[in-house]
User: Fold this.
Amino acid sequence: MKKRRFSILIAGVVLSCAAAQTAAQAQNVVIIVNNEVRATAASSDDIRGIFTGDKSSLGDGSRVTPVTLKGGPAHEAFLKTYAGKGDAAFRTGWRNLVFTGQGAMPKMFDSEAALVDYVAATPGAIGYVSRGTDVGKAKTLVVR
Amino acid sequence: MFRRLSILASLCACAGAGLAQDLSTIQIHGFATQGFLYSSTNNYLSANTSSGSLAWNDGAVSVSDTLSDKLRVGIQLHMYQLGDLGGPTLQVDWATGDYKLNDHFGFRAGKFKIPIGLFNDSQDVDAVHLWALLPQSVYPTDNRGVTLAATGGEFYGSAKLAKKAGTLVYRAYAGSRPLDLNGGYVKSLNLDLQGLDSAFGLSATLVTTAPSGTVFGGDVRWQTPLKGLLVGSSAFVEDMHGSAGAVAFTISRNTVTQQYAQFERGRFFVAGEVKRVPVDFFFVATTPLGPVRVPYYLDWRAWYVMTSYRVIEKLQVGTYYSHFVDTRGAEGPAPIDNYSRDWTVSARYDFNSYFYGKLEEHFIHGTALGYYPDTNPNGEQPRSNVLAAKIGFSF
Assistant:
């Protein structure tokens, strides 16, 4: 009986740690959109749908086009938090859409500064950067 | 004169700016693969695999342009070689104008990939799969042209269900579908025609005009509230007509059905599909004694289960079991020709974002799939193992 309780306790601790890690990763990255996008908030399901090519608009109907980083900590944190997959699987998903005629590959940027500049200048653009990055004229989206 | 030059210069500048803007939205992507097949006994997929065959490659280039936030146009050209099948001719894989009004409704017109099950529309895109060969019971590589694409129209969309009930993704289409003259289906037809022509004393003929017919159907998939779990169902209705010399052949309208489920969480993936293909097929041979009708009724049942795990970011391993049987029963040929069972183990390594390699072993029992009498003139053995290796490049 004691052994079973101990196992449940360990499982609980592991799950809590995993949840805390995900939450920490979510706090490390922020979603930014072009200032002309009406929405100020979005659900994490919307974000996942947009960055996996399943959706093209936010919950309020704002039409958006995703752009991504090519790599780095912010990219990894974003994928883990919102897409639930690694970079290789993420790219494969987009290649699937491109080569079956169902979508266009998101623009990819080497640096967060370049991504911010593009999002700020491009109507409908949506991307992500590390928390604390200067987002310039882009707007930060609250993710519920 | 100066004024005219100024106007011309202004027009050129505007056109240049417009062109630059347009070019920035054009995307060009592509892939190319080279494969190797080696089998322990039977020659597989029309290639001389028992001696080792490199006659297995394919490649594609796609060009697309986003004309507005709702309208996109694109085309993909594709070529492949697999043993006797395919060749150097470029084929239009898809070419569509795609108008997406919103997430609930979009429309594609042109030549589009047909959505059946999990992988029908991507079965000729090697770069997106772990497997060198998808489960052949459901996605036979040599016959993929039969269901791959159609020319017509398709509408698509998705709808979020009631709170926490997931999302429905739907597609429906109608069009016409000419068969690939260099594909396995036409190769099999030609081999059947040889037998018919010989039996009725007709001069030997080959299919030279692509058989075609109408298709329509749809696919509905439910992204369940359980993150990563997807279930769906597809229906594909087809008919086909064609002729070669004094023989005409017809597939009466039939419905192919496919149900599927997949679960993907982190590095882990598991999926399964069930497919049924009931086909009422008949030849009509115009003989000196009058027309003779030769019917074939096929009832193919196929299923597979697969699982894979991404060991590290660059390495993915997996296995599947694929099962096929033709349930014609007593009217069918010998039992060994009536089924195919395939255990497969596979690994894929991504060297970087562009290059990858695959290594795969198939343990095949039964000869219903992938074998042709002309490449196995001494008959087929019930068991054959096949090693499949591939390298690929995608951008």
